């Protein structure tokens, strides 16, 4: 069982929280009921929102191999290309609780220490020899794997490396061994790799690739650098998107002001660490508390007392309430549509080239952050999807119908769950069609035009929506 909590990695807000649950699958795989649904599970989910349960989901502590629905399709469908968006794995906090000792987490990689992965030792050996490859600047100045006895701020941990070695192994078994997505003599131009300029995203991408590729050849690995966490490349200027974000942050602030229990909790914690409440809140204590929680390290104590699980639960519960209100107010949706459009537009461009028989960029990997995946989930209409846990993966699969070679379809999967028919562009399609996928043209039409409908106004393209005056 996997688990959730909102990271405070960036100031941008996440989407929402309801567990993704598989239901039984008939043998032909064609019934609409065979698809996994986004619903609470009455058997395993607590009857009311449990902040500790959600926190464990978010930590995503590696355990037994998980079941996944990637690569599932009727036999007459051929896999054409795969586009993978990941959040980096478990990391050390970006903030510290003022006047407390930093949590002691070891960021060296030790093969015989938990969490373990069979490829961990070989991964360290491979990375320690140096790449011999040139990445796009400034990535070539980043370390290839975590290696500090006391983690540095924001550094990937051994847990984070293992999470992505597992992701890579899982995707290799499905896409390479089963579907032969890449030929045995694959070349560098068949991969498209992009990451932000943080060591944790580069290292997460390398760990996934090391688990995924049958032959990790440095000469074939080239990561492009993406300066924006939204992966908007040359289309980042969007004034209306920023206005949505400002309004969303204002909504978030007002909700916090109304929560007297939250304010009382911050006050108690501030007394314990002997700083003004305002300073404690600004230090994002939840980020450090999550690290203590995920790594089973006691919360900090001072001579005035201890930060404890009750404090943690109050802050976490407020985050869940914040997510609920965010869905209702729709300001984050406006931000998400404009934030996610450039990367979605890039993705459908790659898919369309693949339908023409082009053999480049068959496997695309974007190694990113919670604030990359969360807007994409929201923009796609997946409002029920949990906020991206550590090492979350969102995958777009492109398929060709061998019986009708001109027809191409897509599947969308989030952490191994098929959520295609929960997207706003395909939620009605399976009522009219027995096919277990969504026509590619539905996604193309959505990205090129329909997604802007959620914003109101008359804009039907990205530029107009970003610059409309009436907002």
From TrEMBL:
Tell me a GO cellular component. Answer: Golgi membrane
Location in the cell reads: Golgi apparatus membrane
Tree of life domain: Eukaryota
Keywords for this protein: Glycoprotein, Golgi apparatus, Hydrolase, Membrane, Signal-anchor, Transmembrane, Transmembrane helix
Function recorded in the entry = Responsible for the 2-O-dephosphorylation of xylose in the glycosaminoglycan-protein linkage region of proteoglycans thereby regulating the amount of mature glycosaminoglycan (GAG) chains. Sulfated glycosaminoglycans (GAGs), including heparan sulfate and chondroitin sulfate, are synthesized on the so-called common GAG-protein linkage region (GlcUAbeta1-3Galbeta1-3Galbeta1-4Xylbeta1-O-Ser) of core proteins, which is formed by the stepwise addition of monosaccharide residues by the respective specific glycosyltransferases.
Q: What is the lineage of its organism?
A: Eukaryota, Metazoa, Chordata, Craniata, Vertebrata
Task: Please give the subunit comment from the record.
Answer: Interacts with B3GAT3; the interaction increases the 2-phosphoxylose phosphatase activity of PXYLP1 during completion of linkage region formation in a B3GAT3-mediated manner.
Q: How does it sit in the membrane?
A: Single-pass type II membrane protein
Q: Which Gene3D superfamilies match?
A: Phosphoglycerate mutase-like (3.40.50.1240)
Q: Name the gene.
A: PXYLP1
Look up keyword Transferase and say if it applies.
no
- In its UniProt entry, the species of origin is given as Pan troglodytes (Chimpanzee)
Q: Which InterPro entries match?
A: His_Pase_clade-2 (IPR000560), His_PPase_superfam (IPR029033), Histidine_acid_phosphatase (IPR050645)
Give me the reactions it catalyses: 3-O-[beta-D-GlcA-(1->3)-beta-D-Gal-(1->3)-beta-D-Gal-(1->4)-beta-D-2-O-P-Xyl]-L-seryl-[protein] + H2O = 3-O-(beta-D-GlcA-(1->3)-beta-D-Gal-(1->3)-beta-D-Gal-(1->4)-beta-D-Xyl)-L-seryl-[protein] + phosphate
Which GO molecular function entries does the Swiss-Prot or TrEMBL record give?
hydrolase activity
- Using the UniProt record, give the first listed, main subcellular location: Golgi
Chain positions covered by the region annotation Disordered: 24-44
Descriptive protein name: 2-phosphoxylose phosphatase 1
Record's family?
Belongs to the histidine acid phosphatase family.
> Which CDD domains does this UniProt record tie to the protein?
HP_HAP_like (cd07061)
């Amino acid at each position: 069982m996997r688990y959730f909590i909102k990271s405070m990695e960036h100031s941008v807000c996440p989407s929402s929280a309801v567990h993704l649950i598989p239901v039984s699958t008939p043998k032909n795989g064609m019934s609409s009921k065979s698809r996994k649904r986004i619903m609470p599970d009455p058997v395993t989910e607590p009857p009311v929102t449990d902040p500790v349960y959600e926190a464990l989901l978010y930590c995503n502590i590696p355990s037994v191999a998980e079941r996944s629905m990637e690569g599932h399709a009727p036999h007459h469908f051929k896999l054409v290309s795969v586009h993978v968006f990941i959040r980096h794995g478990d990391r050390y906090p970006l903030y510290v609780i003022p006047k407390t000792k930093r949590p002691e987490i070891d960021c060296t990689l030790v093969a015989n220490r938990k969490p373990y992965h069979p490829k961990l030792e070989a991964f360290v050996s491979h990375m320690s020899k140096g790449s011999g490859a040139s990445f796009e600047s400034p990535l070539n100045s980043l370390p290839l794997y975590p290696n500090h006895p006391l983690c540095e701020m924001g550094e990937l941990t051994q847990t984070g490396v293992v999470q992505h070695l597992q992701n890579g192994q899982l995707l290799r078994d499905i896409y390479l061994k089963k579907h032969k997505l890449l030929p045995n003599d694959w070349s560098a131009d068949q991969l498209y790799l992009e990451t932000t300029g943080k060591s944790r995203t580069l290292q997460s991408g390398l760990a996934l690739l090391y688990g995924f590729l049958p032959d990790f050849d440095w000469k074939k690995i080239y990561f492009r650098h993406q300066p924006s966490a939204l992966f908007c490349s040359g289309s980042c200027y969007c004034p209306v998107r920023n206005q949505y974000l400002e309004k969303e942050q204002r909504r978030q602030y007002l909700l916090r002001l109304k929560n007297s229990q939250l304010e009382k909790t911050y006050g108690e914690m501030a007394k314990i660490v002997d700083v003004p409440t305002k300073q404690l809140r600004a230090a994002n204590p939840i980020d450090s508390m999550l690290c203590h929680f995920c790594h089973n390290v006691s919360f900090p104590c001072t001579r005035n007392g201890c930060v404890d699980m009750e404090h943690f639960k109050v802050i976490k519960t407020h985050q869940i309430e914040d997510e609920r209100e965010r869905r209702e107010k729709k300001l984050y949706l406006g931000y998400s549509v404009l934030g996610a459009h450039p990367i979605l537009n890039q993705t459908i461009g790659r898919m369309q080239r693949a339908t023409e028989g082009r053999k480049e960029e068959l496997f695309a990997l974007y190694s990113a952050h919670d604030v990359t995946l969360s807007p994409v989930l929201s923009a796609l209409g997946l409002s029920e999807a949990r906020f991206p846990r550590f090492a979350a993966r969102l995958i777009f699969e492109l398929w060709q119908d061998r019986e009708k070679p001109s027809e191409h379809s897509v599947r969308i999967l989030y952490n191994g769950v098929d959520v295609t028919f929960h997207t706003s562009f395909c939620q009605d399609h399976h009522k009219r069609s027995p096919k277990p996928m969504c026509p590619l043209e539905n996604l193309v039409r959505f990205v090129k035009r329909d997604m802007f409908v959620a914003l109101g106004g008359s804009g039907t393209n990205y530029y107009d929506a970003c610059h409309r005056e009436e907002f």
